[in-house]
Amino acid sequence: MALVESLQKAIDYMEDHLLEDIKIEDIAKEANISPFHFQRTFIILTDISIGEYIRRRRLTLAAQELISTNRKVIDLAYRYGYETPEAFSKAFRKQHKITPTEARKGFGRLQAYNRLTIQVSLKGADPMNYRMIERNAFQVVGVKRTCTTETTNEGLPGITDFWADMHQQGVIKQLLEQNDGQIKGLLGINDCYNDEQNTLDYWIATEHKGSVPEGMSAFHFPASKWVVFEVRGPVPDAFIQTWRSIYSEWFPSNRYEPADIAGFELYISEDVNQPDSINEIWIAIK
């Protein structure tokens, strides 16, 4: 349960310093894990980025203060981290669907995001199929796009669009033709979380031993031990559920910790939308 306790400690730290200019490095330090690992774990378990959580909580408290005090909007804007009343009003309207003035007059409803509490299930009712392997350093080649970390019921929409675009442009076919390594299939890699911009770098790639093909870039994985989880069912639902199970059930009940190396989804089945589709999630461990 150390992972759960660490995450909750970091969340409590965010709440205690909500009105300050807190950095991801300070938050992750409270959890005693790296910023990369903390950001990845937080998004998987909560479906939102750290920056988005802080913004939602600040605007929730701002709304409460707005309707319960006579404090000026300009003062609230500065108090909750906005440089101008206009920026505050824009963010307020985006979350609450009404303006600060309308909220103070009692028009419409406010949308509150309560303080987050991490709850992890260790019931283990459903078996998780996995294997452990060790690999030397290896190279993958592919294409990269910066995508938003804002999630929907179907995962990250920017990533879905990226795959569709690469299919249409014939890049997926080119990548499959370059696949000559031990890992057979296409990789979807999450890397370089930017919490201030609410983005991550997403790669569509394949293992390739030779020189980097024109129009593509290389991504290098260091030598590591990997835990490889089986993913059964259509995408994206099967991947979303498996990621959550890994971080809410498998890691809390095992002695391993994720390494600070990008994990990836491995697309093996020819038709990943079928109910009997079988793919994988690879996570480097320590």
Q: Give a quick account of the main beta sheet: strands, pairing sense, barrel closure.
A: 8 strands, antiparallel
With strands numbered from the N-terminus, the spatial order across the biggest sheet is: 1-6-8-7-3-4-2-5
With helices defined by DSSP (H or I, 4 residues minimum), what is the helix count?
Answer: 10
- Determine Rg (CA atoms, Å): 21 Å
How many individual domains?
Answer: 2
Mean pLDDT: 90
CATH class of the largest domain: Alpha Beta
Structural class: alpha+beta
Give the topology string: H per helix, E per strand: HHHHHHHEEHHEEEEHEE
What name is given to the CATH topology of the largest domain? Multidrug-efflux Transporter 1 Regulator Bmrr, Chain A
CATH superfamily of the largest domain: Regulatory factor, effector binding domain
Helix content: 25-40%
The span between the termini is 17 Å
Globally, the shape reads elongated
Q: What is the annotated CATH architecture of the largest domain?
A: Alpha-Beta Barrel
Strand content: 15-25%
| Number of strand segments | 8
How would you characterize this protein structure?
The two termini are 17 Å apart. An eight-stranded antiparallel sheet has the order 1-6-8-7-3-4-2-5. The protein folds into two domains: 103 residues, Arc Repressor Mutant, subunit A (Orthogonal Bundle); 156 residues, Alpha-Beta Barrel (Multidrug-efflux Transporter 1 Regulator Bmrr, Chain A). With 286 residues, the chain is an alpha+beta fold. It is elongated and about 65 Å long.
